[in-house]
Amino acid sequence: MKTRILLADDHMVMRAGLRMVLNTAPDIRILAEGASGMEALRLVKSYAPNVLVLDVNMPDLTGLEVTQRLRTQGEQIPILILTVHADGET
């Protein structure tokens, strides 16, 4: 059985990169992609993924807010929250 993943990130390049990497695994299937927190919530209901990959910073709802809403609704899907921050210090 394949792991069914939903990606939600407001940056198309980040979603494309994640999709490219995840598509190399034969036991993973990307079900859908969203660009906002509200879209992620709708897609979870529509697709019932096994895993949700969220950006921490998205329009309308952050990844943390999406997680809180899903948990409040009783949804126990595993969630991986990612972020990229540009840091001027090296």
Describe the 3D structure.
- The chain contains three helices and four strands, in the order E-H-E-H-E-H-E.
- By secondary structure, it is an alpha/beta fold.
- A four-stranded parallel beta sheet has the order 2-1-3-4, sandwiched between helices.
- Helix 2 (37-47) packs across helix 3 (63-72).
- The longest helix is centred in the first third of the chain and has 11 residues, at 12-22.
- It is globular.
- 22% of the residues are buried.
Keywords for this structure?
90 residues, alpha/beta, 3 helices, 4-stranded parallel β-sheet
Element layout with pairings:
Layout: E1 3-8, H1 12-22, E2 28-34, H2 37-47, E3 51-55, H3 63-72, E4 79-82
Parallel strand pairs: 1-2, 1-3, 3-4
Helix pairs in contact: 2-3
The number of E-state strands comes to 4
Number of helices: 3
Biggest pleated-sheet summary: 4 strands, parallel
Radius of gyration (CA) equals 13 Å
Q: What is the topology, as strand order, of the major beta sheet?
A: 2-1-3-4
Instruction: Report how far the terminal alpha carbons are from each other.
Output: 43 Å
Strand content: 15-25%
Mean pLDDT: 93
Order of helices and strands: EHEHEHE
Weakly predicted, low-confidence segments: none
Which class of secondary structure composition applies to the elements?
A: alpha/beta
Helix content: 25-40%
Write down the overall geometry.
globular
